[in-house]
Specification:
By secondary structure, the chain is an alpha+beta fold. The protein contains 14 helices and 25 strands. The strands form six sheets. It has an eleven-stranded mixed beta sheet with strand order 3-7-8-14-11-10-9-22-25-21-20, with helices on both faces. A hairpin with a 6-residue loop joins strand 1 and strand 2.
Length: 476
């Protein structure tokens, strides 16, 4: 087994990078800033996909695919959009041995090409709404990269919808934010704060941007999913018009929303510890690992039939695997701890004789997480244990976030809080004030929470009247 992980308290960034590679989630590719997602990491992403895709389809969305290459002129049609993405664009100027008449942008996001196509498809109010989601890759030429959190190419989903009214589009934007919140809380066991982005932090080209923000294990914030109300900005840029019920031509109202492989980075940092990953059962590629324990051939012939019986009983309802490698039990225990498998099931000669199995929870240390369970009724005990692990992981993450979120009474107190946690404070909403806070503290407005205390207050920085509280923190 490799040396122990670097402790989180010693070097959080190094701990993170080690865990991603040792748990075989991803590795560096020969292209700067890009990553290879390994099978274990991709299985985790597939479970994220499944949890989201199920929710998208339940809300009436359909999956489609749009091209990777986008004409440069498309991006230039929406001024704010192209300005926002210009530093991150990868551009193709030559193909087939010749210079292209028009450069092609490698997809940074799909609003523009979707706007072009929607303009061809939408003629009447009867064609609306259009509710489409894409599962694809995008390229944003990031200068500072980190596996899963910020890479030049990443996987995600991007939803794009078109509506007849502003009210419908705004409702869609908020509905999808709720979908992300539900997924993060109930599948990823990550307590998130849904809120609105400030004007300076919103998506390029959006009227309003909403976000779910989460606290990582080092008390920094991670933007974990976003939903945007575009108004008619892209509709006007791409002439997406429809004949309304009043027999007049109108521009549609559009939205987009996305969640990426960055969520895997969030899962690592919210739940992981100095032994490795801790994966929430609903998303874990392997929910239970069965480790046979024997010292000789006689023990092996006694134990393995029971192990196979246990596997068969569990395989109908959970993702289970038998570790039959020629390694010591201690090696296997450490290896599966590193990989974050929620539940370990041990079967040795003693368990065979007593008609039991040992259940060891990944989320609890040592003997605290171990219990002996009769094989009769074992399936229900395993399922119950996984459900408890899921809820306890959410509870633990929520308590950690709440314990490290404070409401400062002065700007000096604010500066101390954002060095090591979240500050929830009244803010005037002024761009200059926001820029000064960022310059002085390196903290940004993560979001203006949807849940507000009501009333009014005084801006924590400039002292002007404030109508809303905001969450400030250092972030990834």
């Amino acid at each position: 087994m490799a040396d122990k992980l670097t402790p989180r308290s010693e070097d959080y960034s190094k701990w993170y990078n080690e865990i991603v590679q040792r748990a075989e989630l991803a590795d560096y590719s020969p292209v700067r800033g890009s990553m290879v997602i390994r099978p274990y990491g991709y299985a985790l992403w597939e479970n994220v996909q499944a949890g989201l895709d199920r929710r998208f389809k339940a809300t009436g969305h359909q999956n489609a695919y749009f091209p990777l290459f986008i004409p440069m002129s498309f991006l230039q049609k929406e001024k704010e959009h192209v300005e926002g993405f210009a530093p991150e664009l990868a551009v193709v100027t030559h193909a087939g041995g010749e210079q292209l008449e028009e450069p092609l942008v490698v997809r940074p996001t799909s609003e523009t090409i979707i706007g072009y196509m929607y303009a061809q498809w939408v003629k009447s109010y009867r064609d609306l709404p259009i509710l489409i989601n894409l599962w694809n890759n995008v390229v944003r030429w990031e200068l500072r990269t980190r596996l899963f959190l910020r890479t030049a190419e990443f996987l995600w989903q991007e939803g794009h919808t078109a509506h007849a009214t502003a009210e419908e589009a705004e409702a869609e934007t908020r509905r999808m934010l709720d979908v992300y919140t539900d997924f993060a809380v109930n599948d990823a066991a990550i307590p998130v704060i849904p809120g609105r982005k400030s004007e300076s932090e919103k998506f390029a080209g959006a009227v309003r941007s909403y976000t779910i923000e989460a606290m990582m294990g080092d008390k920094k914030a991670l933007q974990s999913g976003t939903s945007h109300f575009f108004g008619q900005n892209f509709a006007k840029a791409f002439e997406i018009k429809f004949l309304g019920k009043n027999n007049e031509l109108e521009f549609v109202w559009t939205t987009s929303w996305g969640l990426s492989t960055r969520m895997i980075g969030g899962i690592i940092m919210v739940h992981g510890d100095d032994q490795g990953l801790k994966l929430p059962p609903k998303l874990a590629p392997i929910q239970a690992i069965i480790v046979p324990i024997f010292k000789n051939d006689a023990d092996q012939s006694k134990v393995m039939p029971v192990v196979e019986s246990v596997r068969k009983q569990l395989s109908d309802s959970i993702r289970v695997k038998v570790d039959d490698r020629e390694e010591t039990p201690g090696f296997k225990f450490n290896d599966w701890e590193m990989r974050g498998v929620p539940l370990r099931i041990e079967v040795g000669p003693k368990e065979v004789d007593t008609g039991t199995v040992v259940l060891a929870r990944r989320d609890l240390p040592g003997m605290e997480g171990r219990s002996f369970v009769p094989r009769v009724g074992m399936v229900e005990a395993v399922r119950s244990s996984l459900a408890t692990i899921q809820s306890d992981m959410l509870k633990c993450a929520t308590e950690f976030r709440d314990a490290n979120t404070h409401e400062p009474k002065s700007y000096d107190e604010f500066k101390a809080i954002v060095e090591d946690g979240f500050a929830r404070a009244w803010w005037c909403g002024d761009r200059q004030c926001e820029a000064e806070i960022k310059e002085e503290t390196k903290a940004t407005t993560r979001c203006i929470p949807l849940e507000q205390p009501g009333g009014s207050g005084v801006c924590i920085h400039c002292g002007k009247p404030a109508q809303e509280e905001a969450i400030f923190a250092k972030a990834y």
